[in-house]
């Protein structure tokens, strides 16, 4: 009697799943996935098979009566990106409640930088296109920072940069996006439905009450969030989307309802609070699936060949967008922080240096998702200025990432060397040698 020795395919074992999820929790790995997805999209969108890419991006799926008959690209930008904003919201709330941002003097710095980083690029754009009033509608295109791309680049080039610098970028980018969403709602939205907006607010309250009342149960049962909170969160997102407000803000709103321990030395349950548990559980979903898919659909912009590039180079819209993102963002951020420290008693975190802020300011010039959305809303359908604005956003984002990386890589090497110096103890007396070097001669 013969026995079949072939084995049927089986689900990956715990070790394999654990290894993959551990990798995806590293921001550098998530950043590389995002960059790879964006490169694939750009190449495909400008290849002979570009029609297939745009057909896939524009394929519609959903239920129209709920305002959810959306293209795959919209599902990615409005839906999957909300998962990333949920993760950002969890981290920000923890910093506000028990971290560095709980102090007003610390939190006001990135908030001020965000407002200045929106105002200066807009003014630069207006100054460049003011002779053509029809182009003024695009003033908000260079105001937005793409938080997903910016954080990804920072993760790739800044493994040894101080933690407060990342929190500064996160806070700045989230406030920047909130401002951009408000700009869209006020200046680029003709109709906001108040009833769906009110239902969204009620659902957020219900979501938060359940998260607080049952936090011990959610901490013990990992599946509880998927069964109880996810349906409520999805419904809240859907109603916000139906209201006409950019739906990614739902991720931040829901995250801010998750309970956080007031002190990191006294976590609420099982060694970590609920926000920390959620962040640990859902980060692989965000960095391994949601953000790369979003990048794949957002980055696919058709350049239009040599003729399209030459036309774009002479368009004031292109010049205004590039100047606003590449130069206006860092100038506005540094200027805003500098004025704040001069006219108030607020001071920078000792761990932050002005050159580090300059690197982050350049990084904030990576404008992608919201900038592309505003470009679509700024000009009439079929206008060549829309395509030129998209080309400008791509070019400016590339330049900003290169300039920022050049600055931050140098700073990263410097911080890495400092860490190594602090660990050296050649004489074995348990005191790092860097603290035992003689002071330089004062003469």
TrEMBL record:
It catalyses: Na(+)(in) + 2 H(+)(out) = Na(+)(out) + 2 H(+)(in). It is found in: Cell inner membrane; Cell membrane. It holds the Pfam family Na_H_antiport_1. InterPro entries: Na/H_antiporter_dom_sf (IPR023171), NhaA (IPR004670). The chain crosses the membrane at residues 29-47, 72-92, 104-128, 134-155, 167-188, 194-211, 223-240, 246-263, 284-305, 317-343, 355-379, 391-410. Its main location: membrane. Residues 421-432 have a biased composition (Acidic residues). Keywords: Antiport, Cell membrane, Ion transport, Membrane, Sodium, Sodium transport, Transmembrane, Transmembrane helix, Transport. It is a multi-pass membrane protein. Residues 421-443 are annotated as: Disordered. Na(+)/H(+) antiporter that extrudes sodium in exchange for external protons. Belongs to the NhaA Na(+)/H(+) (TC 2.A.33) antiporter family. PANTHER family: NA(+)_H(+) ANTIPORTER NHAA (PTHR30341:SF0), SODIUM ION/PROTON ANTIPORTER NHAA-RELATED (PTHR30341). This is Na(+)/H(+) antiporter NhaA.
